[in-house]
Amino acid sequence: xxxxxxxxxxxxxxxxxxxxxxxxxxxxxxxxxxxxxxxxxxxxxxxxxxxxxxxxxxxxxxxxxxxxxxxxxxxxxxxxxxxxxxxxxxxxxxxxxxxxxxxxxxxxxxxxxxxxxxxxxxxxxxxxxxxxxxxxxxxxxxxxxxxxxxxxxxxxxxxxxxxxx
Length: 165
Prior knowledge:
Layout: H1 2-6, H2 14-36, H3 40-47, H4 49-57, H5 74-84, H6 87-92, H7 100-111, H8 142-164
């Protein structure tokens, strides 16, 4: 996505893309500041003043201000776009002020035949009121769990080696 953001193409020029990306990051900063306004002291107590300020100033997925071409966590950009754009605008293809990276990622997925507007069962993943049945599909993040487990075991091993040395 970083390469797409940097180059001109038929849909729009690189400058317009960069501006859209900066607007998405600025919107995230504003949302974060608004959500934390009453709990700033708790945030600073937990993270420290410097880290709390960096957190509040960051954009989508923690992008620091000024990193206009550092695209990471494309899924976070897609979520940001879906949350800030009315579904009617997404379905109709209407131009809205969402997240330019999220829009492009959704376009690529749709071009590949992936259904991005949900399905009759996808809501089950998000609804706390849904009582799952054995026949329900559930997403289980195995890769991340394995990665966490491996990291924990590696750290434990390194700690053991350091103590015995």
